[in-house]
Write a structure and sequence with these properties.
Elements lengths: L1 E13 L10 E13 L2 E5 L13 H6 L4 E3 L6 H7 L9 E3 L5 H4 L9 E5 H9 L9 H4 L6 E5 L3 E2 L6 E5 L8 E6 L5 E6 L5 H5 L10 H16 L3 E4 L16 E4 L5
Parallel strand pairs: 3-5, 5-6, 6-7, 11-12
Antiparallel strand pairs: 1-2, 1-4, 1-13, 2-3, 8-9, 9-10, 10-11
């Protein structure tokens, strides 16, 4: 199994959106991941949409009152995959943690992939459930032409226990994380927005709003238990886990195949 992570954009946002009571702005990484396993390719999350590069686009105008979107050349999802030597047309699965704009933006770039999302998440996004923060469908490309595979709860993607969807509801109605067992037997959990950053976990520091804050707190407790049992957690938007400054465009090896 090979697991690589990279940023498909960065967001400037009020810190108080992440942790209640904080002040000022923070620059957040928008990570995505490519997992190569069992002769297949799975991408987890899709980052920002290429349209955010164009200040004249409707998408940019919809986001700019609240978010400072930064998607440098070479960092859109298809560009990142190409830099990894992965043909976007060869991606078999696109699993989305949830359907907020910064996690779905590159979905339409993977036209041969099955879109894997929790059924509860899909239904909430389509209905635009009160308390959620989904952009209108025309800005999120919910109907992006991909085959949909709606799942209910935990799912073993390849049937061998190595790549499993882990329901972590709270941030949204059907949020899911990805739980991996790498070739050296280590456990790696890609948290998505179930846990924004290390501080969120250590302090059980919640945002002011979520679909279900009590459920999100339980999700943090679940992730803390996994970490205490030896799992490595990669948080949803933690600047400390990603390069900043000149190394922003680095691709991280999170789980390389074993060399025999």
């Amino acid at each position: 199994m090979r697991v690589r992570g990279f940023c498909c954009g960065w967001l400037g946002i009020d810190y108080s959106e992440l942790i209640e009571g904080e002040e000022g702005r923070i620059r957040l990484p928008v990570p995505c991941y490519v997992i190569e396993h069992a002769g297949s390719v799975l991408v987890f999350d899709a980052g920002l949409h290429p349209d955010v590069r164009d200040e004249r686009s409707e998408r940019h105008r919809a986001l700019s009152p609240q978010f400072d979107c930064d998607l440098p050349e070479g960092t859109a999802l298809d560009e990142r995959l190409a830099a990894c030597g992965v043909d976007p047309a060869a991606v078999d699965f696109l699993a989305l943690s949830h359907l907020h704009f910064d996690h779905v933006g590159g979905s339409a770039l993977l036209q041969n992939a099955d879109l894997v999302v929790q059924r509860a998440e899909w239904e909430a996004a389509v209905a635009d459930v009160d308390g959620e923060a989904y952009l209108r469908a025309e800005y999120t490309d919910l109907e992006c032409g991909l085959r949909r595979r709606l799942v209910d709860g935990a799912w073993d993607v390849f049937g061998d226990g190595r790549v499993r969807l882990l329901p972590t509801v709270g941030h949204t109605a059907g949020h899911q994380s990805l739980r991996l067992r790498t070739d050296d037997g280590a456990e790696l959990v890609l948290c998505g927005d179930a846990c924004y950053m290390r501080r969120s976990l250590d302090e059980v520091a919640l945002p002011p709003f979520a679909f279900d804050l009590a459920a999100q707190r339980r999700g943090l407790e679940q992730l803390a238990l996994l970490e205490s049992a030896g799992a490595r957690l990669v948080f949803g938007h933690d600047p400390a886990q990603w390069p900043t400054g000149p190394g922003d465009d680095e691709i991280l090896e999170l789980g390389a195949p074993r060399v025999s």
